[in-house]
Design a protein that fits this description.
The chain has a two-stranded antiparallel sheet with strand order 1-2. The chain contains 23 helices and 2 strands. With 485 residues, it is an all-alpha fold. About 2% of the residues have low confidence. A hairpin with a 2-residue loop joins strand 1 and strand 2.
Amino acid sequence: MNRKMVFYMLGQILKLEAGIMLLPLICSLFYRELNIVIAFLITMALALFLGFALTLLNKPQNKTFFAKEGFVIVALSWIVISAVGALPFVISGEIPNYIDAFFETVSGFTTTGSSILTDVEAMSRGLLFWRSETHWVGGMGVLVLIVAILPTDSGRTMHILRAEMPGHSAGKLTPKLRTMTKILYFIYTGFTLLEIILLLCGGMPLFDAIVNSFGTAGTGGFGIKGDSIGSYNAFCQWVITIFMLIFGINFNIYYLVLCGRIRSIFKSEELWTYLAIFLLSSTVVVFNILKTVENLGDAIRLSAFQVSSIMTTTGFATTDFNLWPNFSKGILLMLMFFGACAGSTAGGFKISRVVLLFKKIVASVRQMIHPRAISTINFEGKTVENDTVNGVLVYLAVYCFCFVIILLLLLLEPFDLETNISAAAACFNNIGPGLSLVGPAANFSIYSSFSKIVLSFAMLLGRLEIFPLLVLFSPSVWIKRRAKA
């Protein structure tokens, strides 16, 4: 284990965090929120002090690191940036309990959107901005940003990128990692700015347009109003619906389109499956809720928004879907697990894995019927290797195991099964709201401190796709092996 390199990267992360706090600091100055300004200045000073201390004391002579170090760097970075990012909430007194503040910050950086706040509209503008900015930074990945702005070695930082980016296709764009990440951020920033402009055209105030676009881009879903997006007009709701779908698409597609390879859109099984699931689910929900709304237009708008929000794991809401018929709520619960595309800013199991699992089932059944036949699995015009399919099966097994453990720990709470199951699913899949007592009109403040810690790590497990945290807490990673005599 190259420990100096691990701590050196943690120092860089802390310096980056101090830098990204400049925008909410400026926001607080603009709205003359003196106590929030002081909270940010104290946190920034602490982050810079720790950051420079770690980088100066741990400047590595050997900058080589492998997959093991990559997993550890990613896992520790997300824990540290959340732990420090919670301090402005505590220092300002707006979330005085540190565990609550940690839950809120983890929810922000992991783009989950679950909240413990009972009155979000009472919060200061500076901290509302900070909550939403954590979505935007966490959407593409904290360390992806480091790779984009700092001189790095592509061969080494690939281990970081693969450990942090959602899905299993992080290495398919280009071997020049720094160039790739700059292109990704160019696309990401461009879509964010376009959404801000469209929301402004729809009459949304500038502050609201910025923070809601941050939440959409990161597929996070922190709202700044008690009814999330419900009080905005239909135009703004449709803009957010479309952009949630856009940010749920694999960014490889956008990169390939920029390179002029437009045909790749038509060859993408994952993309068309994603869109098909969205359209089918939205249509079914429309007919199921039609009797509970005023007209067909409202039913289409509400259904499209909520299906898009849950499927892309954004978590915004325009209505209390907790009041919808059980069939519609069942569809939304299913979509919590599906998630959106690999390589997007969304969480969940990912559509590409769902497709591969379905094809594996079909191939296995065909093999039973024709034992001597050679059965192969093709995905997006290429034959999928057995190692890839086995990797998906292993991930499914670990995914189910982790979900069961999280759920069992939550069942220690005196809440109904629907609340605990949906809370576990919402946090583990980085959705945001659940059902029943943690529905879109409620929050997670009902849970004990122990459960909030469990749910915080569930959010981290879901965002980092489990393995970085498992590697971090594996004793064999940290214990030095003695050389054989």
